[in-house]
Each structure stands twice: as C-alpha cells, then as structure tokens.
Amino acid sequence: MNTSQDYQHLYAGSTVLCLGLKHALQKRGIVAVTKDEFESARLGGFGSLPDLQDLFVRTDEMEVAAEVKDDYLRGLGE
User: Fold this and answer.
1) In the predicted model, is pLDDT for residue 48 greater than 70?
2) Structure pTM?
C-alpha cells in the first residue's frame, strides 16, 4: 500500500512546466503524481492561485527524477 511517505516533492511551478517535466519523466519510466491546489479548491467551491502545480515522485525514483528535472530546466534556461 502506498502512503504519502512513499513519495517526495520534486518540483513546484506552472502547469505548462509541470506538464513538460512530467512528460520528460515518463520518457525515463518515472510516473509523477500531480497535485493541483487550484483544481481541488475549485471543485470544493473555494478560491486558490491558478497555474501552480506540484509534482511528486516515488522516493526510490527521486535521484533519477532530480537529474531529469535539472536537465529539463537547464534546457529551458531556468
């Protein structure tokens, strides 16, 4: 059974950057979990800041995921 302790926070940023990073991770066989506070708040009838997401990856994939993230952001000039 997966718990929140099985996942670590990898990145927080705009929806567009998170989608691109998620795709780069998938190319390496890493499945990232997206947390979207705005969508959750909207569905609950509350407000939040739009266009911000968090990506989480399994703890055992964090080292490779961090390398993928660094390469992806370096390619964007971030």
Assistant:
1) no
2) 0.79
